[in-house]
Design goal:
Elements: H1 42-51, E1 56-62, H2 69-82, E2 87-91, H3 99-102, E3 111-113, E4 116-118, E5 120-121, E6 127-129, H4 146-158, E7 167-171, H5 178-186, E8 192-197, H6 201-217, E9 221-227, E10 231-232, E11 239-240, H7 247-255, E12 259-263, H8 267-275, H9 279-282, H10 287-304
Parallel strand pairs: 1-7, 1-8, 2-6, 2-7, 8-9, 9-12
Antiparallel strand pairs: 3-4, 5-6, 10-11
Helix pairs in contact: 1-4, 2-10, 4-5, 6-7
The chain binds adenosine-5'-diphosphate (ADP).
Adenosine-5'-diphosphate binds at residues 62, 65-71, 98, 174, 227-228, 263, 265-266, 269-270, 273, 288.
Length: 305
């Protein structure tokens, strides 16, 4: 019966400190200076060293899946490459890796070289690392649990030969799960995060949690993007809002972070991403592409000043 139960104060997850910081669920809440030692130990140190030459490391996050996080990552990567930046994308969405298809490298496989994993390079020169580029990925489903997932994150970040890259975009796992926390913990020098939502309050409410996680982890939120924000009807020419409008802007205002813009629904975007075609080059006049290029300019301004 509503209102008759006792409220849950906290779940019993306080096991006491055993200095196992890498695996601690209170890592971002902990104020002990000891925790910084994880970056001096083995693989975490290697991650830090490996990514140190990369100028800008930017996570693309969302609350819910299916809101266009990977599409925004791929579009930002293409836009940055189009503007002359050297770009890498690491796909941390292990269970639903879409980046290889969207960037037109599906079917290729990553190889191992002397300096670790060799990313697959797209036609636009974007270096791609993804579980979708493991041999026979299409015929398998990844059923890794905790430690293995953490290992894979560390491998992708610490044992990959990124070479000369200006921007490393990280397509984050959806939501604020332990996978997401793993990535944030491995990347203490993340330059910032872009948060993608669709206009509905359901998506907005969950995207807010991604922003709260960024705050906890000390990651600056660079901007909120409202994707699937209306479309122009091909028959009557009027703008239609199947998922309402304004949720992204409301979220940005509530959380006091910049609002970067609205990407409308555009069937050509979905189709290009399916086919791994360079949407930005093919349809430069599309309002979706124009917004994406504004997002790219915003990102470059935030990073390069
Ligand atoms: P997520 O990474 O959040 O799970 P995706 O980027 O994979 O979401 O997008 C889900 C699907 O929606 C993909 O097929 C993608 O091409 C399509 N899509 C995303 N944004 C748009 C848009 N603005 N217009 C048309 N299709 C879109």
């Amino acid at each position: 019966m509503a209102g008759s139960g006792r409220s849950i104060e906290a779940l019993n997850v306080n096991y006491g400190c055993r200095l196992e910081c890498e695996a601690c669920e209170k890592y971002f809440d902990c104020e002990s200076p000891e925790k910084e030692n994880i970056y001096e130990r083995g693989r975490m140190r290697r991650v830090r060293q490996n990514l140190a030459p990369i100028k800008y490391k930017v996570a693309v996050m969302s609350g819910k899946g299916g809101v266009g996080k990977s599409s925004v990552t791929a579009a930002l990567a293409m836009g940055l490459a189009q503007r002359g930046a050297k770009v890498g994308v690491v796909d941390q969405d292990f269970d639903g890796p879409c980046i290889p298809r969207m960037l037109g490298v599906l079917g290729d496989t990553m190889q191992a070289g002397d300096k670790g994993i060799i990313p697959v390079v797209s036609k636009q020169g974007i270096k791609v690392v993804s579980t979708g580029l493991l041999p026979e990925e299409n015929d398998t489903v990844i059923t890794w649990l905790h430690a293995l997932r953490r290992n894979a994150t560390e491998e992708f970040l610490g044992h990959t030969d990124y070479g000369d890259v200006d921007y490393l975009l990280i397509d984050m796992p959806p939501g604020t799960s332990s996978d997401c926390v793993n990535v944030l913990q491995c990347l203490p020098d993340l330059s910032g995060a872009v948060v993608v939502t669709v206009p509905t309050q359901v998506s907005q409410g969950v995207a807010k949690k991604a922003i709260l996680l960024c705050r906890k982890a000390g990651v600056p939120v660079l901007g909120v993007v409202e994707n699937m924000s209306g479309y122009v009807c091909l028959h009557c020419g009027r703008e239609v809002q199947p998922l309402l409008s304004g949720g992204g802007e409301a979220l940005a205002a509530e959380m006091g972070v910049p609002f970067w813009g609205r990407i409308p629904i555009d069937a050509r975007l979905g189709e290009s991403m399916d086919r791994g075609q360079p949407f930005l080059e093919l349809f430069p006049d599309s309002p979706a592409v124009q917004t994406v290029m504004r997002l790219v300019a915003n990102l470059q301004a935030a990073m390069e000043g």
